[in-house]
């Protein structure tokens, strides 16, 4: 009934009546996302009628009401086929200022029309394959970049930027060809990075360093939304950028990584928005070539070093607890480098672990990022090693028991999701410089067996990557407890009584044969298969392993 009344007024009424009836329709259906199929034909005709109104010279307020209703109706995929034409798309592009003209964004009264047009285009492009094809034909990506350049440094038109970026993200998500066009032809990497700089109000103190005001206000909701949309669009543009081929590419990625470092050190208007902002920054950092991630850390400035020393000196000598607090708050410094961004990533990772769900989508990106940073950059690895795997003192509990970051990561090493357990184990392995004996000290053999089997290191040794030869130092507590640590569980166990001490020789023989018969039955029924280690350290059926060792011995004896 609503559609029938609105359609009648749209066809026959004047601008004021059209505006009133469409405003009523919009208010009533603002939260409608599912529509009755019985009124489908009426909604199609209403869309067509609205487009006919939009080509007329009607007041701005009437245009906004038309576009609001069109945005609501475009949520229904079924009605978009007949209304998604090249002519109608061009009407929306004109209203959104997505034309080849050099019109500047000076008329503030037009901003609501531009925003609503962009919202309509977002819905239509997302829900209609025809609109997606027309977007390529009309070169929509180039027009969106042109509009972004017009409003790049204009803070009072954040809504326009936000929905321009959202549409750019959708296009680059739905069409892989557009990613290449954005990256190379339209200079999208540089443009989107500049949008982020503008949203964060970055002031550069060096080539890849920005000034951070920890006491400054949080980002506004509009700036945060713009930044999130820009980060998502940049992710699509850089999704295949692991390798840098030109020096100019390396410089641009370093600038982007520096902007992302700044992003990690600021907060949004709410805790949820801050987490969403940081989550998208982590995803984008995963696309940055690992050689360019060195800008995530930077040398401490003289002011930062002097401030830390002054804070400690100003405290009286008897204020031990206060001094310990100051030192604890300054743990983001390591070897003269500012580790704030890495510390934020570590805290972000721990929060994602504590959530206890969606590990593959929420946790693996940050774990993978920290792993690659640790593998490529020594200072980052050593800082993370100090934070995650500090020197062992208390080994009375199993490695997976407790609330430290180490305990949480060790628990993930036996997670049911193969991808999660692999990346958690890989992260700890890299922190241990890919040395098996060091990993086992912190995790126990049982927790590490999956990784070691996959890497062919069950017999010990180390991984393929090279690390510095600085040695780990064990605490006195660990050295004293080491002889009594259970290598499988990784913790100190009280000596257990030997159950066969009280048996006679006949009882021992009986129990041994019973065990042999049970294992033989399991093996014959293929419920259990005896395994052995091949010479390369990987697992294989026991018979095959024995045969390989026999061949090696024969070869060795022939050589002698």
UniProtKB/TrEMBL annotation:
GO terms for molecular function: G-protein alpha-subunit binding; guanyl-nucleotide exchange factor activity; protein folding chaperone. One of its GO terms (biological process) is sensory perception of smell. It comes from the Eukaryota. InterPro entries: ARM-like (IPR011989), ARM-type_fold (IPR016024), Chaperone_Ric-8_A/B (IPR008376), Gua_nucleotide_exch_fac_Ric8 (IPR019318). Pfam families: Ric8. Its main location: cytoplasm. The keyword Thylakoid does not apply. One of its GO terms (cellular component) is cytosol. It is found in: Cytoplasm, Cell cortex. Signal peptide: none annotated. Belongs to the synembryn family. Chaperone that specifically binds and folds nascent G alpha proteins prior to G protein heterotrimer formation. Also acts as a guanine nucleotide exchange factor (GEF) for G alpha proteins by stimulating exchange of bound GDP for free GTP. Interacts with some GDP-bound G alpha proteins. Does not interact with G-alpha proteins when they are in complex with subunits beta and gamma. This is Synembryn. The gene is RIC8B.
């Amino acid at each position: 009934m609503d559609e029938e009344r609105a359609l009648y007024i749209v066809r026959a009424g004047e601008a004021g009546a059209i505006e009133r009836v469409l405003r009523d329709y919009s208010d009533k259906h603002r939260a409608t996302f599912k529509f009755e199929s019985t009124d489908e034909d009426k909604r199609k005709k209403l869309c067509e009628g609205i487009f006919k109104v939009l080509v007329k010279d009607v007041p701005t307020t009437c245009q906004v009401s038309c576009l609001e209703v069109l945005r609501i109706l475009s949520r229904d995929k079924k009605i978009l086929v007949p209304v998604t034409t090249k002519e109608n798309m061009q009407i929306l592009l004109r209203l959104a200022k997505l034309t080849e003209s050099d019109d500047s964004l000076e008329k503030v009264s037009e901003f609501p029309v531009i925003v609503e047009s962009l919202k309509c285009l977002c819905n239509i492009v997302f829900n209609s394959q025809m609109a997606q094809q027309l977007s390529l034909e009309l070169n929509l990506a180039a027009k969106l970049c042109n509009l972004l350049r017009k409003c790049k440094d204009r803070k009072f038109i954040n809504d326009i930027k936000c929905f321009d970026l959202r549409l750019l993200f959708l296009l680059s998500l739905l069409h892989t060809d557009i990613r290449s066009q954005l990256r190379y032809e339209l200079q999208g990497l540089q443009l989107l990075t500049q949008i982020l700089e503008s949203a964060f109000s970055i002031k550069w103190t060096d080539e890849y360093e920005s000034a951070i005001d920890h006491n400054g206000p949080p980002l506004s909701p509009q700036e945060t939304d713009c930044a999130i949309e820009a980060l998502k669009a940049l992710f699509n543009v850089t999704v295949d950028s692991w390798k840098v081929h030109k020096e100019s590419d390396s410089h641009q990625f370093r600038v982007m990584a520096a902007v992302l470092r700044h992003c990690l050190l600021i907060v949004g208007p709410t805790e949820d928005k801050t987490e969403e902002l940081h989550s998208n920054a982590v995803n984008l950092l995963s696309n940055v070539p690992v050689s360019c991630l060195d800008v995530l850390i930077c040398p401490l400035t003289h002011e930062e070093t002097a401030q830390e020393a002054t804070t400690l000196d100003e405290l009286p000598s008897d204020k031990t607890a206060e001094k310990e607090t100051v030192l604890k708050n300054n743990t983001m410094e390591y070897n003269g480098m500012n580790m704030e961004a890495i510390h934020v990533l570590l805290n972000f990772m721990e929060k994602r672990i504590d959530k206890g769900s969606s590990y593959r989508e929420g946790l693996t990106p940050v774990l993978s990022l920290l792993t690659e940073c640790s593998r490529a950059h020594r200072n980052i690895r050593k800082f993370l090693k100090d934070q995650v795997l500090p020197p062992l003192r208390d080994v009375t509990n199993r490695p997976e028991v407790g609330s430290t970051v180490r305990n949480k990561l060790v628990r993930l090493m036996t997670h049911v999701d193969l991808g999660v357990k692999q990346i958690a184990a890989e992260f700890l392995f890299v922190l241990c410089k890919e040395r098996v004996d060091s990993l086992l000290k912190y995790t126990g053999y049982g927790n590490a067996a999956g990784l070691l089997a996959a890497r062919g290191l069950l017999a010990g040794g180390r991984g393929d990557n090279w690390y510095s030869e600085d040695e780990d130092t064990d605490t006195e507590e660990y050295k004293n407890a080491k002889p009594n640590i259970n290598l499988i569980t990784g913790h100190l166990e009280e000596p257990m009584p030997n159950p066969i001490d009280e048996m006679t020789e006949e009882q021992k023989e009986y129990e041994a044969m019973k065990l042999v018969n049970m294992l033989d039955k399991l093996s014959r029924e293929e419920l259990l298969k005896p395994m052995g280690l091949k010479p390369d350290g990987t697992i294989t059926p026991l018979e095959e392993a024995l045969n390989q060792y026999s061949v090696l011995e024969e070869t060795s004896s022939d050589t002698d």
